[in-house]
Amino acid sequence: LSEVLDSFNKVSKDYFANPNSLHSLGEKSKNLMNGATKQISELLKIKEDEVIYTSGSTERNNMAIIGLALAVGKKGSHIVTSKMEHESIYEICSYLEENGFVIDYVNNDDNGVIDFEDLKKKVIDKTILVTISVVNSEVGILQDIDTIKSVVKKYPLTFLHIDATQAIGKIPVDLTDIDLCSFSAHKIYGLKGIACLIKKEKIELT
Question: Can you name the residues that pair with 73 across neighbouring β-strands?
Fold first, then answer.
């Protein structure tokens, strides 16, 4: 943590300008931020323009789930999630239900793991999104994302969002066939108030 704070202090003193400004100090900050984005893209094996910075978990989940739902809602209105998600997901689902979307909650077994036979029944042609947390934030249940991918891949109009907040930096996370991925800096010794949404380039968000 001391290394992170030392880096933050240096950046705050030497790279304080708005990275979107056209002057030299802004360009200096932009170059540093681009370097950080390049590091993230290399670590996660994604493209640099697939990295979106946000202020926190709730914002990135809102951007991913509501943004996708509004963008592709004409193709379907059905969303599948689990009963072991973060509270921010349930708030989003309630909001979408109020706006005409249908939310289905897949069953979990006695250990909290998703019932894949039930998932196969819940995902249908009109399903636009499946959203699942890789690791549960309360009890640490690890979901089998590869099996979830295999179910979703059978439906070309269905997208997959994972909340990897409790997974990134702790276990390997393969973003192959993942359309949207959320995580937060403070879970990996970063500063609070910084989060990231990985949005594959084929995805459009409203």
Answer: none
Of 158, 140, 141, the closest CA to residue 149 belongs to 158
Percent of the chain with pLDDT over 70: 100
20 contacts: CB under 8 Å, gap ≥ 6: 26, 30
Amino acid making up residue 91: E
The answer, yes or no, to whether residue 137 has pLDDT greater than 90, is no
Of 163, 173, 172, nearest in space to 195 by CA: 163
CB atoms within 10 A of CB 1: 8
- Rounded to whole angstroms, how far apart are CA atoms 46 and 37? 10
| Alpha helices (H) along 15-130 | 24-44, 57-61, 67-72, 87-98, 116-122
Question: Quick one: pLDDT band at residue 73, thresholds 50, 70, 90?
Answer: confident
* Whole-number Å distance between alpha carbons of 107 and 149: 17
The DSSP 8-state label assigned to residue 65 in this structure reads I
Q: Which two tokens stand for residue 93?
A: 């689902």
Residue 74: per-residue pLDDT: 81
- 42-57 pLDDT tens trace: 999 999 999 999 998 8
**48 φ, ψ (degrees, to nearest 5):** -60, -35
